[in-house]
Amino acid sequence: MPYFGETGSTLGGVMNRREWIFRGSTGAAGALLVGATAPATLGWPPAARRMPNGTRADPIRLHSNENPFGPPEGAREAMVRAFDESWQYPSESYPALIEQVAATEGVSPDHVFLGAGSHEVLRTAGTAFGIAGGHLIAPFPTYEAFRSYSMDAGGIVERVPLTSTMETDLGGMEGAVTDDTTLVFICNPNNPTGRVVPEHELRAMLSRLDGRTTVLVDEAYHEYVDHPDYSSCVDLVREGHDIIVSRTFSKIFGLAGMRVGFAIAQPATVQRMMAFRNRHSISSVSIAAARAAYQDTEFVRFSREENAAGRRIVYAAAESLGMEYLESQGNYVFIHVGEPVVNFQRRMADRGIRVGRAFAPYTDWARISIGTRDEMNQFASALAKVADEVGQE
Description:
Layout: H1 17-23, H2 28-35, E1 60-62, H3 73-82, H4 94-105, E2 112-115, H5 117-130, E3 135-140, H6 145-152, E4 156-161, H7 170-176, E5 181-187, H8 199-209, E6 214-218, H9 234-238, E7 243-248, E8 261-264, H10 267-274, H11 284-294, H12 297-320, E9 325-326, E10 332-336, H13 341-350, E11 353-355, E12 365-369, H14 373-391
Parallel strand pairs: 1-11, 3-4, 3-5, 5-6, 6-7
Antiparallel strand pairs: 2-8, 7-8, 9-10, 10-12
């Protein structure tokens, strides 16, 4: 049953463990795969990665929000070609990617900050704006790469809980802003919930905060979103607003292992962050891969459609077991598993599947990353068996 999803469903109370066990009885296993039937596959990209065996020793990776298809073929070829220049320090390769991002996003190159994945972008921003007692505000839970670095730099991070429907509480966050607030962080779509912040609400808040503080909008899952109430905030940067938009090549572009990300911000903000960057943090091989992947619109389309199909399989599996879930705009789905996540992780690991960690305070919800359709069907089958196992205890 979707939980405050796009279908308009509402939460009718938390399902207790016995109810979940009952609805997850043996007969559900076959129903999961039937309900998960997807349109014919679009086909594999060239040189697809080796598929795991789905065993404890070689598990299916549904825990890190990676693109299961790996990088596009053009990026693979670009990496090989870049090996010949890998003896050089990478700084000279940075401008080409900066200019490519700037041209694509409609800004000048001095608006672009490169980092080793969005993690470094958020770490650098957290340090730059948290230093010497800066006051930062963020939803809770959310992706928190910047939080520990902000606190290490002497910052104070105020967490604002999600609403009762697991939406980002913009009103609560705005109400927490003081004259000392240096940065407000919003992950859109949010991780782990996959929920988007409605465009009109976000832009209204950003307008009210303009001139009061800097806002960082993490758009790591931007390319996956197809929700009509979502829009990127890059245009606000173009208009001169004090906003940082972070993006990454780790998700839809399949380059999580190559570590490339970027931010779009005002030139003064970019310079402020540059003081805290890790110089030479991105290799020339990674830069080459990112440049090739960034222009591969067909691979992005393929990955988006396959991801949507994988999400539908998770929805069908959850519904057949009577489990609540959040309709997601990322490459993951947050589902209520009815027991501590640590126990659920162990049960799924026994069946060769790794799932996401606990996100307090929702410690009986699990974040399930989207793999290939075959992997998600294996997940659906394992989920039914886990329900049976719990029911027999």
